[in-house]
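Format notes (please read before filing issues)

Several people have asked whether sequences and structure tokens are stored in separate files. They are not. Every record keeps both together, in the order shown below: the sequence lines, then the token lines. Line labels are part of the format and must not be stripped during preprocessing.
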Amino acid sequence: MESFVLWGFSGNAWITIITVFTMFTVLLFTKLRSDLVFLGGIAVLFLTGVLNAKEAFSGFSSTSVVVIGVLFVVVAGLTHTGVLQWVVHNLLGQPKSYKGAVLRLMLPVAALSSFLSNTTVVALFVNIVKMWSKKLGISPSKLLIPLSYASGMGGVCTLIGTPPNLIISGLYADRTGTAMNVLATTLPGLFCLGVGVMSIIVLRRLLPNRETPEDVFEETSEYTVELIVPSANPNIGKGVAELGLKDIHGGSLVELVRANEVLSPVADDELLQEGDRLVFAGQIDDIFYLKGNLGFKTADQALFTINQQDSDRQLRTAYVVLNSDLIHKRICETTFEKDNNLTVVAVARYGKRLKTSPREVKLHAGDSLLLECSPKLDINTESLKSQLYFYDSEQVPNIGPQTLVSSAIMIAMVVLSSLNILPLLNCAFLAAFAMLIFRCCTPEQAMKSINWEILMVFAGSVVLGVAIEKTGIAEWLAYRTLDVCGTNPIVVMTAICFIATFITEFISNTAAGAMFFPIMYEAANHLGYEPYPFLIALMISVSSSFATPIGSPTHMLVYAPGGYRFSDFLRIGLLMNIIILAANILIVNLLYPLTPIH
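Then the structure lines:
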């Protein structure tokens, strides 16, 4: 295929272009797992001969990918010893103004995200920020977007804070033989963080004032009805499905209480008995017609409220994750409740409870669900993790001596690496080993902490970068950028960073980093300048996704809890993208003056 040339591209280049665009299209418009998409892309490039075996599997042996995998274990040690919880409880405090709240929140979150997974940090903070905001009299929606933004801006402050930094620095080391310092992005990252925090304070009127799902679900007695089956009722002995009780107009049967037994979900063939208490969820006015039609009576005392839970059942809230199979489906059309032994009691969207039967709602990504389930429900099963994220899923470990030990291990890792005493990979392995030796986490916890799907995406991103460079696509794009932007290096840097910032709103920042590395590197070389400052600017750009909730996993973590709409991110995010891009280009060129290659 190398001999075939069309519009300046060889056959292998066209295969690569089609593969890359197909992958991004699939990621945008389907619910296929991202790791499978990247694995499929690698397979196409290998089977068509674009890449040889060594190149196709180079991502799996990449130093930066290995470092990311090992750092998962280090993060597990910090998480299970309560380091994050200690920071939360000691730094948030009781600020007297919104400005103070933003500073108290964003700075610690950014600091933690410089060394930990920003997804882990945000997941921990979400529930705490919701409770904290109520104490301060501030709507959680005014603080949850700043929480997510802070984690992203903090992550760029070190090479280990966000995967694209590791990928780009690793590719740079492969090209030049010179490793970047782990704190290479610290000063420009801190400057952009400062600009970002001040921008949030100035633009706070653009942040929405939304009602959260928890406010909607606070009092379930407002939308649940409990009816009792009296003695001599003609329907005793009949099945609930036979009587049409499973899905009635305006509601659904949540549970059946019989003496000391709670049946939920209720089987279709369950026969009514005298004294049964039936709990329905939905529109009260629509449900009450059952009293007259079927001869039921209203229960004297409500059993089903969010604040009165017993050992047999509990209420939990969760939101529908972005790639859930439940999206665009109705619960009544699936076996989801039966498979997981739970019942959907209510659904909220954009912070408002939907006034219809919860089992009849066609679900959207980000919808919040109020669920009735057993206290022993395992939310870590694959069938639940792939569909829902539970707001209370983060377990809070006890803070003790191990907290100091894990903190010391992390600090030692960063110091040894930043002073170039040991390579980052060596430091990461030593830190992970120390976390296990000093029992900051168990081997089982360490293995569970490794996100293999993320590692596959990282490895695939590296391979894409190799293909884009090998087939000459990067060089062609670099020349076309120079044709449009001229030979001014700052203009070229700005143009590529602007495109990267836009692209990363729709694809993973890791993929964007791997895709734009060869373009930026070749552009700098053709201009005759050292690529180092160009790549520092690129690192910040590919992690600066503020304008869409799908631009970052952390945005989706706060999307449902904040009761946000898609436009809420767009309103403030577009301005943030422009502001941080300008700050990025300014500070990088001040700190790292462009140096001609001799």
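For reference, the curators noted about this record: The chain has 26 helices and twelve strands. The first strand starts at residue 5 and ends at 6.
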